[in-house]
Design goal:
ten-stranded mixed β-sheet; single chain; four-stranded mixed β-sheet; Serine Threonine Protein Phosphatase 5, Tetratricopeptide repeat; OB fold (Dihydrolipoamide Acetyltransferase, E2P); alpha+beta; 758 residues; 42% helix
């Protein structure tokens, strides 16, 4: 199924989910069922007129009180139900028929209508940004806008005294017995200016002067920009452009240039690029000597925007234009140097991973690097939909792709509240930073049609309808329900800093069941699943590194596990079926499904015993299991090997045996070197590696392997044992092998020497 990724960030409510715990998952499921029941009850009022509504004074006091109480806690938990899906409006305000508050009917999407409103209360954020509103006839109500940037002030989203058009409004009852106009798609609410022709006269100030010159609005924009009121500045500059006469060409260029700067501050890079290019003054204009200086600024802003969009060749051309206009310009030289590094990364995959690793931190997880995708392409994958395929041969350990996140939310980033999204459409629950991912993605796409097109091309789990990306009324019509569906299918859990940092935590016993951070990586999302794949991912900040675990030939599909193969084969299959709707047919799964029912039952029972043993008796350096536990483990290994000794398991990784083997090796209080070598090489063979000794060296075959930290640890145990025996060549072979696996699994070598004391 093309476009799938690993939702390590999601709690699968129906199965208990990672990190949530069975009791917590059960509670969440009960809450979702209660919400469904409430919605079913509300549907009985569909088409009715709301009764006993609050007065204007009551609403004003209500929102004033909520604002006073807001922020009373250091960290609030905000639970949001993602209600039953409906599409965003794809019509302009002028294409819709006006409706008033008194004409609204409960539990109804007023298709083909538009509601003009003015806020009169104090905006506040609960789970949505809310405020009190009135229409042109003085009727009042509440409005709630969901899926907005959680870090944006409510005063920016629904400021007091602002005029809005709500397209095809949804009117519904609320949990407190009241009613509200609910906006799930931020693109459905359009801010208006008093002079807009669509605004009802009763909502617009009568003293507004329609003949103010463009310079007046430009001055307003400059003042707003100086105060960092960027949204206000955008409105002012837009008004200035509308007020510009045909004879004010230079002023128009000036305003475009200024608006480009504001859009750059807002990270609306496609808008920035459009404005910056529109600000280029042609030769021969009346700008005279200032032309070079002004165009230099415009090209700088165009270059910055193109750079942030990953269009590095375009960025390079804009910076070269700067160098032509103003030779010796320091900004041009600096940005050109930076851009050339990105071009080298994007074209050849040349990265300084050590420098990348040193530059990342909890406070700086978003890195300045390009994506390298030249070795892969998206193609049809038959019954699996679309997939990612190698365009060239790739050796084990080599980088397949290195991709910067489309969007990522990290555990240490600023967050005023803990959000929990409970999706009634898919039964999925997202918490913390995983919930923030939706808000970040929506924010990014609202002003980026090209980026929205890339994102909405991903697999959405069969969501319907699939609307074409359209820029309407100044923003992209973003279907937030479909966006969440795509995130649930494609988001990857990732460490807060880097994979090697996470590995250090696990080595010291500080592992976590659920990654605190998550993101969407567009190209990586096209990889299809196999429990025993041919690639493995790792992370440095928001950069995902995918390396080959075995040799890959041109034309071969890149495969990776969505769920890591584990002792409980049935649980892995159940998770895949429930979340993605397919049954895995990889080598491991085919082997596990082989044999008689009695044989499968025996393997399942033995694996259950392994889980119980490893859970009850930890094998650590300072805490060894009892001799009796070790004896049980050895007998269990004998029985397990017999159960997995059928031809179906030839050349198939047996991660359960490897896990028990590692436990036995760590459990021995005084292991002998030869015994360690036997156990370690056995673990590697159980992980699918071929191990062959040749004189004083050892060769390793990756053809059927599964790579993870157990294999690295086993190799280093063997290296140490050979060193103790004075077999330096074999020891060096194992160390080289372990270092290669470490880089393959974790992206880079950082932390290897510290972990293994080399």
């Amino acid at each position: 199924m093309g476009g799938f990724g690993l939702p390590g960030s999601m709690m699968a409510a129906a199965t208990g989910g990672a990190g949530g715990g069975a009791d917590e998952a059960k509670l969440m499921m009960e809450l979702m069922e209660q919400e469904r029941e409430r919605l079913r009850a509300a549907k009985t009022r569909k088409g009715q007129k709301a009764q006993n509504k609050r007065s204007r004074a009551d609403l004003a006091e209500e929102f004033s009180s909520m604002r006073r109480q807001a922020g009373g806690f250091a960290m609030e938990v905000r639970r949001t139900y993602i209600n039953f899906a409906y599409p965003p409006s794809i019509r302009t305000v002028t294409d819709l028929t006006p409706i008033t508050i008194s004409e609204l009917r409960l539990e109804t999407h007023h298709t083909g209508k538009v509601l003009f409103l003015k806020t009169f209360g104090t905006p506040t954020r609960i789970t949505a940004v809310q405020n009190a509103v009135e229409d042109e006839f003085g009727d009042v109500d509440r409005i709630a806008v969901y899926n907005t940037d959680p870090l944006a002030s409510p005063d920016v989203i629904l400021p007091h005294g602002a005029i809005f058009a709500v397209k095809e409004p949804y009117y519904k009852g609320t949990a407190d017995g009241g009613v509200q106009i609910r906006v799930d798609h931020p693109s459905d609410i359009v801010p208006l200016q008093p002079q807009d022709a669509a605004v009802p006269p009763a909502l617009a100030p009568r003293l507004f002067e329609l003949d103010k010159p463009a310079t007046f609005f430009k001055t307003e924009g400059n003042a707003a920009y100086a105060e960092k009121h960027y949204e206000t500045a955008i409105v002012a500059y837009t008004n200035a452009l509308e007020a510009c006469g045909e004879s004010e060409a230079l002023l128009r260029y000036d305003i475009f240039r200024n608006r480009a700067m504001v859009n750059l501050c807002l990270k609306r890079h496609e808008r920035t690029l459009d404005d910056a290019l529109a600000a280029i003054i042609p030769d021969g204009s009346e700008a005279g000597e200032k032309l070079k200086e002004l165009n230099n600024k415009a090209y700088f802003r165009a270059g910055r925007a193109a750079y942030e969009l990953g269009r590095f060749s375009d960025a390079e051309s804009y910076y070269l234009k700067m160098s032509e206009l103003c030779p010796g310009d320091a900004d041009a030289a600096k940005e050109l140097k930076r851009t050339k590094l990105r071009l080298q990364e994007a074209s050849a995959g040349v990265y300084d991973f050590a420098a990348m690793s040193n530059s990342v931190s909890k406070k700086r997880p978003h890195l300045d690097h390009a994506s390298f995708t030249e070795k892969v392409e998206v193609r049809d994958a038959g019954n699996s939909g679309r997939g990612l395929f190698a365009k060239t041969s790739i050796k084990a350990g080599e980088v397949i792709l290195c991709e910067k996140a489309f969007s990522a939310a990290f555990g240490n980033e600023k967050q005023s509240s803990i959000y929990i999204l409970m999706n009634l459409n898919t039964n999925q629950i997202s918490a913390g930073k995983h919930a923030m991912l939706l808000f970040n993605v929506v924010k990014k796409m609202l002003h980026s049609p090209a980026e929205a097109t890339r994102f909405f091309d991903l697999h959405d789990g069969g969501y319907d309808p699939k609307l074409a990306v359209a820029d309407i009324d100044g923003v992209v019509a973003v279907d937030t329900f479909r966006a969440q569906a795509i995130i649930e299918q494609n988001a990857f859990g990732c460490p807060d800093v880097r994979s090697t940092k996470k590995d250090e935590s696990e080595a010291s016993g500080r592992s976590r069941e659920l990654e605190e951070s998550s993101g969407v990586w567009i190209m990586a999302s096209y990889m299809n699943h196999a429990c025993v794949g041919n690639s493995i991912r790792s992370f440095i900040g928001d950069m995902m590194i995918i390396r080959a675990t075995k040799d890959i030939v041109a034309g071969q599909e890149i495969l990776q596990p969505y769920r890591l193969p584990g002792i409980e084969h049935s649980k892995v299959q159940r998770d895949l079926q429930e979340h993605w709707g397919f049954k895995c047919q990889c080598a491991i799964c085919v082997a596990e499904d082989s044999g008689t029912a009695a044989q499968r039952g025996q393997r399942a029972a033995l694996n259950k015993e392994v889980m119980q043993l490893l859970g009850e008796h930890k094998a650590r350096a300072k805490s060894k299991p009892t001799a009796l536990a070790v004896f049980k483990g050895e007998r269990l290994m004998t029985r397990l090997r017999a159960a997995y000794g059928t031809p179906a398991f030839n050349d198939v990784p047996k991660v359960n045996l490897a896990g028990l083997g590692m436990w036995l090796m760590r459990a021995r209080s005084d292991p002998q070197p030869k015994s360690v070598i036997t156990l370690a090489s056995g673990i590697l063979r159980d992980m699918g590696f071929g191990v062959a000794e040749h004189g004083d060296s050892v060769d390793f075959d990756h053809t059927h392997c599964h790579v993870d930290s157990i294999a690295i640890d086993a190799a280093m145990h063997a290296a140490e044992a050979h060193w103790v025996l004075g077999q330096m060549g074999k020891s060096a072979s194992y160390v080289r092998f372990a270092r290669k696996l470490y880089i393959t699994a974790l992206g880079e070598i950082c932390g290897f020497d510290e972990r293994y004391h080399k």
